[in-house]
Design a protein that fits this description.
By secondary structure, the chain is an all-alpha fold. It has 24 helices and no strands. The chain has one domain: MFS general substrate transporter like domains (Growth Hormone, Chain: A, Up-down Bundle). Helix 8 runs parallel beside helix 11 and helix 18 runs antiparallel to helix 23.
């Protein structure tokens, strides 16, 4: 029998061994691939599934950042102010319970599970509060690199859905941990939230490596990552209103728990890891995305991470440095500004949430301008991709540094301070169109892996920001002079990291983005080899 006949016989036997479901799936894939081959290259692809996926990721990140930043305002309601006489009478109880609770309340069932007033408050000093705030970052940085690898191998849908469910359950349990345990239990739960939320950024970058063409990369990623700003905008005032409402501070954590679980369900039913796995994407849009990114989405083959070449990439280290500066400044703005507004500006908790959120609302709007601006520079070829990223980063860092320095020295007038914060955040978001998108420029196939590395390192440094602030403010948290040091340190991080990024950064597509052993040609050759 000839080799040709042997091949036909083997192919026939293979087809007979397939189940009906496998045969049906193979026919659909072959049909789609045939349509893609026959289809002319689209001249313009309008609104499509890539925008829907960006919208889903936007909502996920918005919820995540609302839960992440609410603790700064929630602590203002949870921690005992020490101004009323009733609390002074309970000093003996405080000593017995290791300075944990100041008001026990009645012993009714609903009150025991913190569903009715009065709600307990706690005697946690500034250092303890800073440990609670820093705990999220401790957990957040631990799973960064593993999360990037999970997203790379298994996609983002399972990863992000699981993260949202864990966040929801932990949020529900936080009031009980604080009341029946101590601040240590709150720290543990915040670390668990950080562990689960470590999946978000690497997962999103992995998704954009599959969904975002270069010409739309700034707008799509900026829209989705705008959830960071809008999550803060919505999270801070909602936290303030809930804390001041009959639901009290326990209602803060129950609200976000329910919201996180709901978004997780939506993502599970409507999310897709790549264009090849989306059940409703058009052939034209799928081809447009895959050709722009050089993907071989229909093969289902996962590329092996070229660790040696990736870790030798100088441009990656430029991103890591830039990420460190951004994280330090961001943690300062998100966690320390609420305390600054309360201790120095003497703003009540309801106004605290609203006034702290206003700069981030402005940030969300300017995000759209800078994303359009940077994409225009690239599409019209006015600047190279590398110079566009560096310009965007400097537009974000330098004004932010100037704003923090001004905040350290200006008269502590609420209008002046709020104006400085608004201007700082308005420009700060521009940096995200620099270093933040840069991972996808370098290697879209490994964007999530690189983001997990830079996110892990930056949060290792960022977790120290609240601790350093607590150390600087240990003598007097109401001192304007001591708060000046906190803001100057953050400003220094912005300036130094920007200079380093501009000096060594790059946005050139790396040759190791598609390893030789995983090119289309080699994959085809492998498929032609006879099976043993």
């Amino acid at each position: 029998m000839s080799n040709l006949e042997n091949g036909k016989t083997f192919e026939k036997d293979l087809l007979h061994s397939e189940t009906d479901a496998e045969r049906k799936n193979r026919v659909v894939v072959e049909k789609n691939e045939t349509q893609i081959t026959l289809c002319d290259k689209p001249k313009h692809i309008g609104y499509g599934c890539r925008h829907q996926q960006a919208a889903l990721l936007f909502v996920c990140l918005m919820v995540a950042y609302s839960m992440r930043t609410c603790m700064g305002v929630a602590l203002v309601a949870m921690v005992h102010s020490g101004h009323d006489k009733k609390s002074d009478i309970s000093n003996s109880t405080i000593d017995i319970q290791e300075n944990n609770q100041t008001e026990i309340g009645s012993v009714g069932l609903l009150n025991g599970i913190l569903f009715t007033e009065p709600y307990p408050t706690f005697r946690w000093n500034k250092t303890t509060q800073d440990y609670i705030l820093a705990a999220f970052s401790w957990g957040y940085m631990i799973l960064q690199i593993p999360a990037g690898q999970i997203a790379h191998r298994y996609g983002t849908r399972y990863l992000l859905t699981g993260a949202l469910v864990i966040n929801g359950v932990v949020s529900f349990c936080t009031p009980w941990a604080a009341y029946y345990g101590s601040w240590v239990f709150v720290v543990i739960l915040r670390m668990i939230q950080g562990l689960s939320q470590s999946c978000f950024i690497p997962g999103m970058h992995t998704a954009f490596g599959k969904w975002a063409p270069l010409e739309e990369r700034g707008r799509l990623s900026a829209f989705a990552y705008g959830g960071q700003a809008l999550g803060t905008v919505l999270g801070l005032p909602i936290t303030g209103f809930l804390a001041a409402s009959p639901l009290g501070w326990p209602g803060i954590f129950r609200f976000y728990g329910f919201l996180s679980l709901s978004v997780g369900a939506v993502l599970w039913f409507f999310g897709a890891d790549s264009p090849a796995q989306h059940p409703r994407i058009s052939v034209a849009e799928r081809r447009y995305i895959e050709e722009a990114l050089g993907q071989t989405g229909s093969t289902g083959k996962h590329l092996k991470v070229p660790w040696k070449k990736l870790l030798r990439c100088k441009a990656l280290y430029a991103i890591v440095v830039a990420h460190i500066g951004q994280t330090w400044g961001q943690v300062t703005l998100y966690t320390e500004v609420p305390a600054f507004m309360d201790k120095v500006m003497k703003v009540n908790i309801k106004a605290n949430g609203l006034l702290t959120a206003l700069p981030f609302l402005v940030m969300w709007f300017t995000n759209f301008f800078f994303s359009w601006f940077t994409d225009m520079l690239i599409v019209k070829k006015w600047l190279s991709v590398t110079n566009t990223r560096k310009l965007a980063h400097s537009l974000g860092c330098i004004p932010a540094a100037v704003g923090l320095i001004s905040l350290a020295y200006v008269k502590k007038d609420i209008i002046v301070v709020e104006t400085i914060l608004v201007l700082t955040c308005a420009f700060k978001i521009a940096a995200h169109l620099g270093w933040h998108v840069n991972h996808i420029d370098l290697a879209p196939n490994f964007a999530g892996t690189m983001m997990s590395i830079s996110n892990a390192v930056s949060n290792l440094f960022g977790s120290l920001a609240p601790v350093v602030a607590g150390f600087l403010l240990i003598e007097d948290v109401t001192s304007e002079f001591l708060w000046r040091k906190v803001f100057l340190v953050a400003a220094g991080f912005y300036v130094i990291t920007d200079l380093l990024y501009v000096a060594i950064g790059s946005a050139e597509l790396q040759e190791w983005n598609t390893p030789k052993e995983d090119t289309k040609e080699n994959i085809a050759n492998e498929e032609q080899k006879p099976m043993l």
